[in-house]
Amino acid sequence: MNTTVPPALSDAVFALTLALLLIAPLAIAGLALINAGLGRSRSASQALLGNVAILAVTAIVFALVGATFAGCLPGGAGHIFRMAGKPWNLLGAGPLFLGGLASAPAQSQLALIFEFLAVALAALLPWGSGADRWRLTAGCATSALIAAFVFPLAAHWIWGGGWLAQLGVNFNLGAGFLDGGGAATVHVLGGFCALAVIWIAGPRRGKFPKEGFSTAMPGHNAVYVLFGCLVSLVGWVAWNLAGAILWLHAPLAALPVTAINTLLTASAALGSTFIVTTVRFGKPDASLCANGWMSGLVASSACAGIVSPAASLFVGLVAGIATPLLVELFDLALSVDDPSGAVSVHVAAGLWGLFAAGLFAPQPGQLVAQLVGIATLLGVFLPLVYLLFWVLNRFVPFRVDLDGERIGMDLHELGGGAYPEFVIHRDESYR
Predict the structure, then answer these.
(1) For the chain, which domains are there?
(2) Is 90 exceeded by the pLDDT of residue 192?
(3) 238: Cβ contacts below 8 Å, ≥ 6 apart
(4) Interaxial angle between packed helices 222-246 and 286-303, expressed in degrees from 0 to 180 and rounded to the nearest 10
(5) For residues 200 and 398, is the Cβ–Cβ distance under 8 A?
(6) How many Cβ atoms from other residues are within 10 Å of residue 280's Cβ?
(7) Whether residue 410 has pLDDT greater than 50
(8) What is the CA radius of gyration of the chain?
């Protein structure tokens, strides 16, 4: 349990936060559209159904198991051990099956809603990266694992009063590790899951036919992708505002700046990606510009409630420049087949946003706290996720068979395509 008791919420703040949380799922809807649009046309139905199924699985599993360990529910002091004279809170110890939720404080109830949305968004990131070759049952199985243990562990350490949240109290490192909008708990963690899926499932057939060579496999619907970016903006602003209230305990007067910073970071990222792709290719690239926009939103999740508008522009500028370069690096140099760009967008931009939050924060020691959190994400959660997914793959194989990938995930897993009146193109590499 967090040793720092947050201020009680007034009725007006409670109503505002609840309204924001009802708008925040638009970020999930936008990401679902992006995931579908960046995949192949013969897998579009499976892609969207997978997004809905993952949302359902994470909600059920988090309610049954994950919320107990996340630490937002009252009734448990957490699993704490002492080392060097300091308490280290490692895991929540709340009641099972959302017991006592109706009588929980308003702060806990709203925090739980936030976490339900956060775990769903985190679980959607690997689904986009495994597009066109990842089985639906495997996607649901990994989502259950994320909701049951991986996400609750990170959420407790960062939001539920765990040891990262207490770095300020125990070691005078600023206000402890700060992650107001879920850059760490949602985007970096979900991006690590995406990277693990890419490593385990391997690239799509025909993506890397020769060593050092990459075949372009553009998404089938840029309209889905770009409209998803617009839908995500609405949800993201609500998400960052709700996170600022719940996790940063921001006053109402600070919320307009948080909303403006969210828009400025995304806008600067889009602008810089637009320029980079125009210089690089002679014309702006729609999908990369969409990735740049999303990288700005991801970076804002870490710092929109902490930094100034001028700093937000700088954060977005750097994220937008880095995104297309990283996409090209992962694809051409490292042979990482990531259709949705989750590693470049969510991991890289999330880590940059977390670093920037400490760099521009007014509290002394905040940068060190952020670096400790980043090191923990890289040193603990990346290997943990890969190990868990590697074991899971032995029981629930991730990869579809060659025939399923050839005819498309829609026909193979659902028995029908998303566009039955059109002829679906099949790659020459399958013949």
Answers:
(1) 26-82+90-430 (1.10.3430.10)
(2) yes
(3) 20, 21, 23, 24, 26, 27
(4) 0
(5) yes
(6) 14
(7) yes
(8) 21
